[in-house]
Specification:
There is one protein chain. The model has no long low-confidence stretch (mean pLDDT about 85). The longest helix has 18 residues. This protein has one domain. The chain is globular. It is built from four helices and four strands. It is an alpha+beta fold.
Length: about 110
């Protein structure tokens, strides 16, 4: 099982991003605005791959990646493999966007 979490690399106040998170993830606009204003500390999405809901998590992850890629906004992405999220330095677990895209592509064949 692979866990990921996504936030913005830098704080942001763009209302269109808050609206996207509201529509896509069901966050209130107020919560979304507060989260994106935190930058790296404001994780707005987390998910686990290879579980029963893998297809839904992968789809939601791709929607998020595409939206921010289209806007030219850099994301901060962390990945943990079967580890506890408590008491860690998230910077030690940062992965690049291409790493996450590769993970998604590799997992596609398992769920076809």
């Amino acid at each position: 099982m692979t866990k990921i979490a996504i936030s913005l690399n830098k704080p942001c106040t763009d209302l269109s991003i808050a609206k996207f998170l509201h529509v896509t993830l069901g966050l209130s606009l107020t919560a979304a605005r507060k989260i994106i204003a935190k930058g790296k500390a404001g994780f707005f999405f987390s998910g686990e791959f290879y579980l029963n809901d893998h297809i839904d998590v992968a789809k939601k992850t791709r929607e998020i990646l595409q939206f921010f890629k289209d806007k030219g906004i850099v994301l901060f992405i962390v990945q943990l493999d079967d580890e506890d999220w408590e008491d860690i330095s998230v910077n030690d677990y940062q992965i690049q966007l291409t790493d996450l895209e590769n993970l998604l592509n590799e997992s596609d064949s398992l769920f076809d």
